[in-house]
């Protein structure tokens, strides 16, 4: 049976790796998810075989049932607009689970004294590391969920952002407390019942640190924060696997940790910011930020669905720039219908995807794929930016910060240096927005005041549908 378990673990994490490789492209992403899910099922079966002599089958069955009941319905019912929140919440649950495992192992081993009769360094270090990082990830992910779900009062959120320096000091103190408690617990593993309070204190200190790390971070940085917390959860799972001597947890945790770290680094580069700058010097959520477009003294030009339709109908190339506004309005199907009409008239339609558009990595790709937009039509920022100067019409649907030319032109702007989509280089720009409110970064966009820009105000789905009707009438 021992050999069977080992073989199943090898098969499981091989499927994890193969499934992850499928996530590198939209065409293979669904298959990759299914392969990794089957791998996880095999890993669960391996664990059940490994603990076949246990007397706790009722608890195990109850835990599996609770997991299915709490996991499947939200995954089925959650709309794509709320997918970032769901990812943050599920990631947090993973971190919280690892923290609870570390706590349970501490209690089950009588304060690390009953580890096969001799205290084991990998067991102790792995458990304590998992306790700290898992707790940070859990509580930090809950804050990210609350921010994305807009459960936090905006005024309260601004207070957190504006007092980021104070939270930095508090986090340094909490980090020292957490590490100090971990070292003390590890060195003084004596099974004393009072020591149980120390592990609780460690979990609380790490949990508060998780809250204080994410609370001051502005909304514009949430995609990077989600990715970073995901990496931390993976590392904590690997540490727990080290403590439990479970190869599947070690490999799966390292895969998640490594891939999450790479993704976090790529997204940080896409914003031209370092990860420490995001954690310790965030922006976003403050409408009074510098670099406001209104300071340019420009005039906003409104347009109509009829004028927008005429511009696009007689264009050679149209580039659609999707943003979170498209997701909120669920306008992806309407955009697909509009694009089909344009293509029937001989207009080439492409989609410009910024790495941090939306609220999580790949958010726009998934939305457009849901509407059967061809994968080849979705162009990443580096591939599409050279096309804007040769484009007749760029239509921006709910994207703000990723099209803001202040990132190139205004050294005083908080986003200066961030790579953006060069929408302002198109011959004509049509921006669909409900109002002139700023984006998630809380700064104004000079693009809206440019001579080549026209604003089409209203709900994105309704306005796109109106443009589509006008195209049909031409």
From TrEMBL:
Keywords: Cell inner membrane, Cell membrane, Membrane, NAD, NADP, Translocase, Transmembrane, Transmembrane helix. It is an enzyme of class 7 (translocase). It is found in: Cell inner membrane. InterPro entries: DHS-like_NAD/FAD-binding_dom, NADH_DH_b, PNTB-like. It comes from the Bacteria. It catalyses: NAD(+) + NADPH + H(+)(in) = NADH + NADP(+) + H(+)(out). Its EC number is 7.1.1.1. Residues 6-469 form the NADP transhydrogenase beta-like domain. The chain crosses the membrane at residues 6-25, 32-51, 57-76, 83-103, 123-148, 169-189, 195-217, 224-244, 250-268. It is a multi-pass membrane protein. It holds the Pfam family PNTB. The transhydrogenation between NADH and NADP is coupled to respiration and ATP hydrolysis and functions as a proton pump across the membrane. Belongs to the PNT beta subunit family. This is NAD(P) transhydrogenase subunit beta. It comes from Rhodococcus oryzae.
């Amino acid at each position: 049976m021992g050999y069977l378990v080992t073989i199943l673990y090898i098969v499981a994490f091989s499927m994890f790796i193969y499934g992850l490789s499928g996530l590198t492209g939209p065409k293979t992403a669904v298959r990759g998810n299914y392969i990794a899910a089957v791998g996880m099922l095999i890993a669960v079966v391996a664990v059940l075989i490994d603990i076949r002599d246990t007397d706790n089958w009722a608890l195990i069955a109850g835990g599996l049932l609770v997991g299915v009941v709490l996991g499947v319905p939200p995954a089925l019912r959650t709309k794509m607009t709320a997918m970032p929140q769901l990812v943050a919440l599920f990631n947090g649950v993973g971190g919280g689970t690892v923290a609870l495992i570390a706590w349970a192992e501490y209690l089950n081993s009588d304060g690390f004294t009953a580890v096969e009769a001799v205290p084991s360094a990998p067991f102790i270090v792995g458990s304590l590391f998992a306790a700290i990082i898992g707790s940070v990830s859990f509580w930090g992910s809950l804050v990210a969920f609350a921010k994305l779900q807009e459960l936090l009062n905006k005024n309260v959120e601004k207070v957190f952002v504006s007092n980021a320096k104070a939270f930095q000091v508090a986090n340094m103190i909490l980090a020292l407390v957490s590490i100090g408690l971990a070292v003390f617990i590890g060195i003084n593993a004596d099974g004393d019942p009072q020591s149980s309070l120390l592990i609780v204190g460690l979990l609380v200190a790490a949990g508060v640190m998780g809250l204080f790390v994410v609370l001051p971070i502005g909304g514009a940085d949430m995609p990077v924060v989600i990715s970073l917390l995901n990496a931390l959860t993976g590392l904590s799972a690997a540490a727990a696997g080290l403590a439990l001597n479970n190869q599947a947890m070690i490999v799966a945790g390292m895969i998640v940790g490594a891939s999450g770290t790479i993704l976090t680094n790529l997204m940080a580069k896409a914003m031209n910011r370092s990860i420490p700058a995001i954690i310790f010097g965030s922006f976003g959520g403050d409408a009074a930020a510098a670099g406001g477009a209104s300071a340019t003294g420009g005039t906003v030009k409104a347009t109509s669905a009829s004028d927008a339709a005429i511009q696009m109908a007689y264009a050679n190339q149209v580039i659609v720039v999707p943003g979170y506004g498209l997701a909120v309005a669920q306008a992806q199907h309407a955009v697909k219908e509009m694009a089909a009409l344009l293509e029937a008239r001989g207009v080439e339609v492409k989609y410009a995807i910024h790495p941090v558009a939306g609220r999580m990595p790949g958010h726009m790709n998934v939305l457009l794929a849901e509407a059967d937009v061809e994968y080849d039509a979705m162009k990443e920022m580096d591939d599409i930016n050279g096309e804007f100067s040769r484009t007749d019409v760029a239509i921006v649907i709910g994207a703000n910060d990723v099209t803001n030319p202040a990132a190139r032109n205004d050294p005083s702007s908080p986003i200066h240096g961030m790579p953006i989509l060069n929408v302002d280089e198109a011959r004509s720009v049509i921006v669909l927005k409900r109002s002139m409110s700023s984006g998630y970064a809380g700064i104004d966009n000079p693009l809206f005041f440019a001579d080549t820009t026209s604003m089409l105000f209203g709900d994105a789905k309704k306005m796109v549908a109106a443009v589509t009707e006008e195209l049909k009438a031409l």
